[in-house]
Amino acid sequence: MKRCFVALRLPEETRAALGRLLVELRELAPAAARRLRPVRSTNLHLTLKFLGATPDDQVPTLTAALEPIARRSRLPPLTLDGIGAFPSADRPRILFAAPLHPQEPLCHLAEEIEQACLPLGFAAEKRGQHPHVTLARIEAATPRGPLSDFIARHAHDAFGALDVSALVLFESQLSPSGSIYTPLATLALGAA
Ligand code: 2AM
After folding, report:
1. pLDDT score of 22
2. By CB count within 10 A, which of 2, 114, 150, 152 is most buried?
3. CA dist 153 to 34, 118, 158, Å?
4. Does the beta carbon of 172 lie inside 6 Å of ligand 1?
5. Is the CB of 170 under 6 A from ligand 1?
6. Per the CATH hierarchy, to which homologous superfamily does domain 2-188 belong?
7. H/E element holding 188?
8. What residues does each domain of the chain span?
């Protein structure tokens, strides 16, 4: 079994800009910083579909199902232009960066991938489509003041572009020192 997901990459400059933001996040009040788990900047990505446990022999089938979607999909240039938190800025558990607008092309692509994966036995996302780049995971007991200020300060920062040239099927291996993401297939977008 492989733990898989489909994502867009971020160009190096965008990852570097988000990396600088994460350095600033670590410099928050120590009591808040201790309870934050920032994503390593090399691992930053935007997930379109989390597949979870995938039998090894299903990877080629999955790739074949994604290929025609990638070929006929073309995304407009998209930038990450703000940060926010799930479930809310007042109760931050996941800190994210997101394209504020337009989100429709990404939601539409995520929906198409979802529909193609359903017949292969991958469950639909129950929480709706909210395309985002996870920046940090935050423990519930974290003091909220410094974090809420941080979110407000950077709510409309421009971090740079998303890489809209290809869909990438990644394997995610969980390890105590953080997740290791390995690309299994890279499918050019808009190659039709
Ligand atoms: P997240 O960053 O918002 O948690 C690899 O784990 C990728 O798949 C992450 O980007 C993660 O999104 C996403 N993902 C979506 N649903 C998931 C789930 N139920 N469990 C783990 N990861 C999930």
Report:
1. 95
2. 150
3. 20, 40, 12
4. yes
5. no
6. Cyclic phosphodiesterase (3.90.1140.10)
7. strand 180-188
8. 2-188
